[in-house]
Amino acid sequence: MPPEFFKEYTPRLAQNLLGKVLYRQQDSLLFRAIISETEAYHGPEDLACHCSKGYTPRTKIMYKEAGHIYVYLIYGMYYMLNFVTMEKNFPAAVLVRGIKNLQVSYNHGKSFEPVAAPTNGPGKLTKQLKLDKSLNGLKLHRKNGLWVANEQIKIYKNQIQNGPRIGVNYAKEWAKKPWRYWI
Questions:
Q1: Which residues sit opposite 21 in a β-bridge?
Q2: What separation in angstroms does the CA of 33 have from each of 9, 137, 157, 170?
Q3: Cβ burial 51-80 (10 Å sphere, 16+ → b, else e)
Q4: What domains appear along the chain, each with residue ranges and CATH number?
Q5: Distance (Å, rounded) from C-alpha 94 to C-alpha 155?
Q6: pTM beyond 0.90, yes or no
Q7: 115-163, pLDDT tens digit by residue?
Q8: What are the two backbone dihedrals, phi and then psi, of residue 167, each rounded to the nearest 5 degrees?
Q9: What span, in angstroms and rounded, lies between the C-alpha atoms of 87 and 65?
């Protein structure tokens, strides 16, 4: 997907990412999976968004152009994968919460085999895709080893569910925003 795709209003982009294919090149392995669950974090007024505390060394990535990768560590053991959205200097991102149909290729994408591993959570998917902070601040692009493609998987509006984001009870009224989307 071109960088312009990510310049979307964050909750809308979170929905538009559903059904897109996430690719991860890790050494000689090429992984791919369908994005099946996302959450939107939109701007400094969103108390669930990291940037609600302002510009910090951790959040500076969120102020970059849309299409950058924002990876952070929680609980000292789980990496979280996010894509920066909106215009430069407006801090917002979409968290990838789940993927499905994980596959791996050992021959540069000529054929893929299914991977039987849990990917129904942001920490699980980053573990399976071997994602860590080495990607933080890079652009989504094949040359950087992580990209999103549109492979014409049709997701109909009635297939998309939404509800409150998970684990943000501290965010007062923002915790109730129905900005988590899943297929």
A1: 34, 149
A2: 24, 22, 20, 32
A3: bbeeeeeebebbbbebbbbbbbeeeeeebb
A4: 3-182 (3.10.300.10)
A5: 18
A6: yes
A7: 999 898 999 999 999 999 999 999 999 999 999 999 999 999 999 999 9
A8: 75, 25
A9: 6
